Automatic annotation (TrEMBL):
Gene3D superfamilies: Acyl-CoA dehydrogenase/oxidase, N-terminal domain, Butyryl-CoA Dehydrogenase, subunit A, domain 2, Butyryl-CoA Dehydrogenase, subunit A, domain 3. Pfam families: Acyl-CoA_dh_1, Acyl-CoA_dh_M, Acyl-CoA_dh_N. This is Acyl-CoA dehydrogenase. Residues 266-414 form the Acyl-CoA dehydrogenase/oxidase C-terminal domain. Keywords: FAD, Flavoprotein, Oxidoreductase. Residues 23-131 form the Acyl-CoA dehydrogenase/oxidase N-terminal domain. Belongs to the acyl-CoA dehydrogenase family. GO terms for molecular function: acyl-CoA dehydrogenase activity; flavin adenine dinucleotide binding. It comes from Blastococcus tunisiensis.
């Protein structure tokens, strides 16, 4: 058969199609993030994580210098004006070195800026973008985790101030933060209203490294996720100015040129985008951790010898590496796709839950396998694989557990019967 034969069926492999999201600018940003993570974050993580240390100011300054606290803040507000895609891409690189450095980025990006006054909002956004407005989020309580509608912390108006009383748990970065965004109940739901009626987010401004009057707490002794202290907090009459109500939906409506119903929709879409972004960001962090475990394993399989061979010659272990790598690629492709769709403004509520579920469960499997590949040395604090495993284990629990993601996905696919 010649190449001109019209009956020819054989075809050369098509050239590799670059994904639609590839740009030289993104490649450069990824390279910059990778270099920062490996050269500057990793050595610090190796030293401080075993001591349960906090991210040092020098690393925060390095991230601020690169503009990463404002990756997704619009350029006209002083940010880099990039999308969820770039935010997740940089976060994967940081999590490869130390997950908490990727998490601290989520405490800026315009968080804690959606106040009613437009001038103040503008000022706070600028500070957020510069890394001078890094916060903490206090949603969870001892009896309200997955079920946030059960929040009991109370806010009562007293003149021009809210007085907040209650118990919050799991508040990451609370003491080191410039502000705490606190979910409180200002009234009980009325007959026929949803259980979340009466919940509002308040902005508690504070000094870095201190608690304001009425706020106290202790850091919870965690298994991993060091770099951050995670606090159990007691609010005992903490006073917050009346105007410090955070309302992302309202802020988006006010920024929107549209009127009426369309503007309300814009506000709702903004609140959804916030939740979905957090899920995709967690997926990216999970991929970073799994990649760390794979890279450490590939190194170890060449270094360690048994039966007169590097253990990387044993086919069972080679196949494990292949499976780990394939699962990581799949999760990365998925989070990038969902991030891309989010940046296009498309509704991806179900997909954001799917990628959070899949990527975090993958990360637990892959880091667990990596520990197995390291044998006894993996089960020591002398190697880093135990850190990746400890941190990955958290990703299926926080930002909505795997079970809650399955609930969200299945509720969008399968209507419940009236008996449910
Ligand atoms: C290290 C760490 C850091 C955190 N950081 C923060 C933070 O900064 N700010 C903050 O506000 N919170 C934070 N959290 C809290 C976190 O979001 C919650 O732990 C999480 O939402 C789960 O809530 P819970 O721990 O109360 O578990 P529970 O809700 O009590 O769940 C226990 C189990 O029951 C399952 N379950 C619950 N309801 C259902 C259901 N309807 N159907 C099926 N299964 C269900 C869960 O999936 C889980 O397996 C953090 C948690 C940890 C561990």
């Amino acid at each position: 058969m010649t190449s001109t034969d019209s009956t020819e069926t054989w075809q050369a492999e098509p050239p590799v199609l670059l994904p639609p999201w590839h740009t030289p600018e993104r490649e450069k940003l990824q390279e910059q993030a990778r270099r920062f993570a490996m050269d500057e974050v990793l050595p610090v993580a190796n030293e401080l994580d075993p001591q349960k240390g906090e991210i040092p100011a020098s690393l925060l300054a390095g991230m601020a210098e690169r503009g990463w606290f404002g990756l997704t803040v619009p350029a006209e507000q002083g940010g880099l004006g990039l999308g969820v895609f770039e935010y997740c891409m940089v976060s994967e690189e940081l999590a490869r070195a130390w997950m908490s450095t990727a998490s601290i980025l989520a405490r800026s990006q315009g968080l804690g800026t959606a106040v009613a006054d437009a001038d103040r909002r503008h000022e706070l956004l600028g500070r957020s973008a510069r890394g001078e407005w890094i916060g903490a989020i206090a949603l969870s309580e001892p009896d309200a985790g997955s079920d946030l509608a059960g929040v009991q912390t109370r806010a009562v108006l007293d003149g021009d101030e809210w007085v907040v009383t209650g118990h919050k748990r799991w508040c990451g970065n609370a003491k080191a933060a410039d502000f705490i965004q606190v979910l409180v109940r200002e009234r009980d739901p009325e007959e026929g209203e949803s259980r979340s009626a009466g919940l509002v987010n308040l902005l508690l401004e504070k000094e870095r490294g201190a608690f304001p009057p009425g706020l106290s707490g202790y850091p919870i002794d965690k298994v991993g996720y060091h770099g951050f202290l995670t606090w159990d907090l007691e609010f005992d009459g903490v006073r917050i100015p009346r105007e410090n109500v955070i309302d992302e939906a309202r802020a988006a409506r006010e920024e929107s040129a549209e009127e009426g119903e369309a503007a309300k929709q814009a506000g709702f879409a903004e609140a959804q985008k916030f939740l979905n972004t957090a899920r995709v960001h967690t997926a990216a962090r999970a991929v970073g951790l799994a990649r760390a475990a794979l890279e450490d394993s590939i190194h170890y399989l060449q270094e360690r010898e048994q039966f007169g061979h590097p253990i990387g010659d044993f086919q069972a272990l080679r196949f494990a590496v292949a499976e780990m790598a394939a699962q990581i690629e799949q999760a990365r492709a998925f989070y990038r796709q969902v991030a891309h769709l989010l940046d296009l403004g498309l509704p991806v509520h179900k997909e954001a839950s799917m990628v959070k579920l899949e990527a975090t469960e993958m990360s637990v499997r892959v880091t667990n396998q990596a520990m197995q590949l390291h044998g006894g040395n993996g089960y020591t604090t002398e190697r880093q694989v135990e850190r990746h495993w400890r941190d990955a284990r958290l990703t299926t629990i926080f930002e909505g557990t795997s079970e809650i993601q399955k609930r969200i996905i299945s509720d969008r696919l399968l209507p419940r019967s009236p008996l449910s």
